[in-house]
Structures are given as C-alpha cells and as structure tokens.
Specification:
The chain is α/β, with parallel strands linked by helices. It has two domains: 2-207, Cation efflux protein transmembrane domain (Alpha-lytic protease prodomain-like); 213-364, Cation efflux protein, cytoplasmic domain (Alpha-Beta Plaits, 2-Layer Sandwich), CATH 3.30.70. 64% of the residues lie in helices and 15% in strands. The protein is built from ten helices and six strands; from the N terminus they run H-H-H-H-H-H-H-E-E-H-E-H-E-E-H-E. The protein has helices spanning 2-34, 38-64, 79-107, 116-143, 146-175, 180-207, 213-224, 259-277, 292-306, 339-353; strands at residues 231-239, 245-254, 279-288, 311-320, 325-332, 358-364. Strands 1-2-3 form a three-stranded mixed beta sheet, covered by helices on one side. A hairpin with a 5-residue loop joins strand 1 (231-239) and strand 2 (245-254). 32% of the residues are buried.
Length: 369
Amino acid sequence: MENVNRSKIIRRTGLIGIFTNIGLGIIKIVFGLLASSFSIIADSINNFTDVLSSTVTVIGNKLAHLPPSKKHPFGYGRIEYIASFIVSGIIIATAAFALYESIQKIITPDETSYTYITIIMVSIAIVVKIALGLYTRHQAKKANSLALKGSGTDALFDALITTATLIGAIVSMIWEVKIEGYLGILISVFIAKTGFEMILETTNLLIGKRYDKEIQTKIKSIVKSFKEVKGVFDLYLNDYGPEMTLGSVHVEVPGSLTALEIDELTRNITTKVYMECGVILTVGIYADVEDEESIAIKKEVSKIILSHEEVLQVHGFHLHKDIKSMSIDVVLDYSNKKRDSFYKHVYGDLKEKFPDYDITIVPDIDTID
C-alpha cells in the first residue's frame, strides 16, 4: 500500500506541474507579445522546460515500477535516479539559457512597453511558480523522490528568473535603467551550482555510497536486541531504488548454538529488520570461540593487530587448533593507501607469534559508522 501511495504522489504532483507550467507558459507568451518583451517570451521557455522535467519524473516513476525480470531481478527502481539525473541536466540547461539571455540583454537591451497589467500578471506567475515549487518539494519529501525534488527546485528557480524579469521591468518603467541582464547572470550562476550539486548527489547513488548513519544504527540496534548475538559486523546495504534496499550482515554467536537455533535466530532477525526498516537482509554467522585456550589466542591476535593505529576493527576470528589454522577479518582505515604491504606486515607480526599456524588475513571494508 505504501509503495502505491508513493507512486500516486509522484504521478499526481508531476501532472499538476505539467498542466500548471503549460498554462503559465501560454500566459507569458501572450503578455510578452502585448508588451513587446522578448524577456517575458523567453521566460516562458522556462515553463516548458519544467513541463519536460515533470514529464521525465512521471515517466521515470512509471518505468521504475516495472516488475522484476530475468535480466533485472532486483527491479527497475534505479530508473528514478536516472530520471533525477536528467532533471538535473534540465536545470543546468535552464541556467545556461538564462546566462545566454542575460548577456544578450546587456549587449542589446529590449525596447519594451510594460504596463501595470503586465506587471500584475508576471507577479501572479511568480506567486504560482513559488507555490508550485514548494508544493512539489514537499511532496518529494513525502515520497522520497529525488526527481520530484529536482522538479520542485527547477520551479523555484524559474520563479527567481521571472522575479529578475519583474524587477527589471519595474526599474525600466520608473527609471528607464536596464538591470535585468545583470540580475539574470547572478541567478543563472546560482541555478547552475544547484544543478551540479544535484547531479553529484544522483551520481553518488548510482555509483553506491555509504548509507545514512541513522538507518545503520537502527539495523544494528535491532540485530543486537537478540540475546544470542554477541557482535554485529559487515553491514552492507545496497540501494536498488527508493523502494528496494538489499543488505547483508554478519553476527557473532556462541559456537555452541545448534543449526536449528541459528536458523530460527536468522529468520527472526531478517523478519524484524524488514518489518521495521523495509530492508531485505541476509544474515551470516561468525561462531565465537568458547574454550579458554582459544579465547587466549583470540585476545593475543586482536592485541597484535589493533596495535596498528590504521586498524579500525578485528572480527570474524576462526580457529582450528587441530590443523593449526586461523582466519581473521581486519577492517582498515581508508587513510592507509598501501594496504597490500600493510597486510603483509601484520601477517609477519602474527607469524612471529604463532609460527606453527597457517594464518589467513581477510581484508574487510569499513562500511559501518
């Protein structure tokens, strides 16, 4: 039900944006022709670019909800990020157009015949645009939609551009001074900056970035709430769209647990995490050592590895005393750029202390804040 409501919010808001911008664009063209103002006519183009951005948002949301296929088993949710990327490009194109027009206005100012009716209509258009932008961004927050957020931002920027046109018209009517072009340059730079920031945000989602600390903390708290869990490690979260997050985690449990007890534990963890966080989680197991000799070896190994300040965490300790074998997962800080040589150094330290053991160091990734 929640996914359906989210989709309805995005499509309804997108359609409202499309029809509102078509209406505003037509009104601006009419009054621009009456006032012989190319600025107002050119400003109408921004409304039609908003029609495009709203259309991209609606289509992107529709495609994102296509059912999973053999080729794309995790669905098409990331299409929404591609739609957001396109909307960001439209914002930058709007900025470029505004910059070009502003420079043209400075070089060859318009010969205009503004009237108070023109001023009133442009003012109404600004109010409508601001209302549309704020409404769209509010709905974007409710629906967690980057593309919708971009459409709302685009609408607010168009209101800024139109405001520059309005201020220029008023100044031109009163003092016969042309300042619209200079205001336009300032606004276009601001719009371009925001457009590039949106592209960076969307690119990070497409590449894959560290998840928000809030959701990490919540998942770790849920997993730790089970009495059998002694530690939580290797939390990986993969975003396949705003409505699809898959992840995995390792939990350390007493080595004495039976397969049946572990099966029940992992099922309970995955169910609770999905119900409270909406994340489909796979749970892996680290069996903790329990005899005194193994505990002593584990403490000594951890002490040696953690003596290096670049090491963030040691876990996943696995010991076979009978065949003299041990394995350890080591999480290294990203500041260390010579990882291979570092692991060889740590291996040498451990081998010096435990010469009879076959030692495996598993390089791990720092994903948990």
